[in-house]
Each structure stands twice: as C-alpha cells, then as structure tokens.
Amino acid sequence: VSFxxxxxxAVIEQGHATLTLTSALRDTNWVTVRWSNGHDSPFHYVWxxxxxxxxxxxHVIAGERMSDPxxxxxxxxxxxxxxVDDSLLVTWPDAHRSSFSAQWLAAHAYDSVxxxxxxxxxxxxxxxxxxxAPPTAxxxxxxxxxxxxxxxxxxxxxYGFTIVRGMGSSPGNVPMLAKRIAFxxxxxxxxxxxxxxxxxxxxxxxxSVKLTAHTDLVSREAQPGVQFLHCMVNEAxxxxxxxxxxFAVAEALRQQNLEAWQTLIRVPAAFRYQNDDTDVCAxxxxxxxxxxxxxxxxxxxxxxxxxLDCDRDDVLPFYAAYQAFSLLLRxxxxxxxFRLEAGDCEVFDNRRVMHGRQAFDPNTGRRHxxxxxxxxxxxLSRIRVLQRQSDFRLR
Length: 395
Ligand SMILES: [Zn+2]
Prior knowledge:
The protein is an alpha+beta fold. Helices cover 28% and strands 27% of the residues. The strands form 7 sheets. It has a 6-stranded mixed sheet with strand order 7-8-19-11-22-9. Strands 10-20-13-18 form a 4-stranded antiparallel sheet. Strands 1-2-3 form a 3-stranded antiparallel sheet.
C-alpha cells in the first residue's frame, strides 16, 4: 500500500513522533483511537474514508487525491478496524481497505486536546522582553547550513522578527538571503527596493520623516508575509528602527477594551495606494483571526487609510476602536527601538510585527536600506520542507 503525500505530512508534526497506537474501538460514527499516553482521539468514518491514502484513492507519484468526497455515504460504518504494526487498518463495506500510520493519525487528530497542541508556536513580546537579547542569526551561517536556516526560520515564526547580522554592505545580499527561503514577492515598488531619502518620493518611506509603526502594502488583498530590510549605510543622525508586536498589542487591547477589539475584528478599515500608474484598494479589518480564532494578521497603516466604507452605525465605534489601538501601539512598552547598523538586516513577519523609524537628518550622513518580501505561504512551506529533510536525516 502506498500512502503518497500522507507520508510526508506525517513527519511535519515532530512532537507527535513518540505516540504509538494502543487500541481502536468502533463507535456509531467514528473510531476511537487510544494512544500510548492514555489520550483518546475520535476519527469519523467519513473522514477516514475520505483520507484513504491507497493507490486507488491517491496518485502514487503525483501524490494528489483522485477520490471523490461526494461519493462517501455520510452514514458509512467500517466493517472492521484493527491496529497492526502501529497502524490502523480499516475495512469498508465494499471491501475497500485503508491503512493509517500512528504518526499520520497523531499529526491530524482533530480532538480539542490535539488541536490545542498543534497551535502555532507564537511568543508574544513587549519591548522589554527582546531589547536585551533580540533573536538574531548570522548571514553566512543561514546561507551555508540548512540546520541554521531552519533554526532561524523557526525563531522568526515564534517571535515574528529576527535581526540577521554580518550582511555587509553589498547590494544584492538581501535578495540572496530572501531567496534562501523562496522566490520574491513583486509589487509596484519592484522585487527589490531602495529605502533612502529621495527628491521625488512616491512613498513616505523615501523621505526622511518619522514613520509610525505600520505594516506594508495594506492596500493589497494579500499583505506580503516576510519583510527584509537590509541596512547598507547608516551614517545619518536619527532614523532608529521601531518594531512592535501587533499580536501583543491586539491581545492587550482585547484584555483592556473588549468592545474595541471586537469592532476592529468586525468592521473593515479601507486602504488605498495610488501613484501615476498604480491604484490598489483593499478593505479588511485591522485585526483578523483565523478559522481557529487565533491571530491571523494585523493590517495597519495610517499613511494608506482611505475613506471608511461601512454601515453608518459602525463609524463612531470604528474610530473609537482604531484610536484605542493606535494609542496602545505607540506606548513605549510595545516599541522595540534600536539602531540598525550597516550590515544588519531586520527580517519580520509583516502581517504581525509593525515596523517604523524615527525621523533622520539627511544632511548628517547617508542612510540607505534595501528591502524585499517573501510571501507567508512560501515561508511556511520552506519550514515544512526543511523539517521533513531534517526528520529523514535523523532516521
Ligand atoms: Zn483507498
């Protein structure tokens, strides 16, 4: 029996690797699997039949599904379930047979305990938590070593930012670092863009004024996921970098002003970016949760706010909530402020960590950063593939 892609999926959740199957009991609508730690997980028959990984149901080479969920009777009951060699073997009324490894079942168990265990490993932070020892990585190590790369990406996922040191001042190093993860995200600013004071700026970023903490490309349907800002020259006075954990601010808002938090999740803000040949708009809430009610993204940029388009009864609540969130994220306890030196690159989750900078005086010296983006999907894909490879190396 071949399990196609399911085999790969199983090793993603490395934390489950030690669980083994103890027993399987047939119930009316599901099989109850008991694990070696005494915990029980139900698996519905329709779910098991739908996820059969046999060569008939899933293409052996392409790994994609060929079975049709619409063909499974909702009242399907297995004729037999048995555990053999740490796998669950299921026999169906039409004599079709399915086999699921303990690893695969553990990785996909959907009881509440298992789902809570597989939450994203986010560490929310205040400035004081990271100022002494911010999460860092070394450019030459992540470029040359896959283990160092994986450790860096996991740190980036956990904290939402890292500072990569030892990048030097060569233009081109930042796309090289980003491409260690995946291909670059393009936009009207280009794949790689220069941040310096310009005479005819088409963004506030290209001036010397203070940039309050914000996320980038808020007026697009999908905000870029990972943002890279490589400091190549920093001789100007001022211009300190600011990072703010948007999820930490959102959570603080929830605790002290639940009504404002609920409004920012429900009522969309409007954003728009225009230049000579670009006009992009998007309306989304400032705080978004995913299907598990976990923080999904923060979308916040005063510079690109557009006229609200919402129910008239939501206008005042929106402004009250937006103001509460804005004042909160400016509190010094949330603002991690530091000076990027030449050779440093700040890398952050643009959909979680807001970034900004203090004003600088362009007459005191040059300040030149180079930046680019990688999308979240590709960032997470790289983590999964590296984990799969590291798991196979350990075997
Ligand atoms: Zn099958």
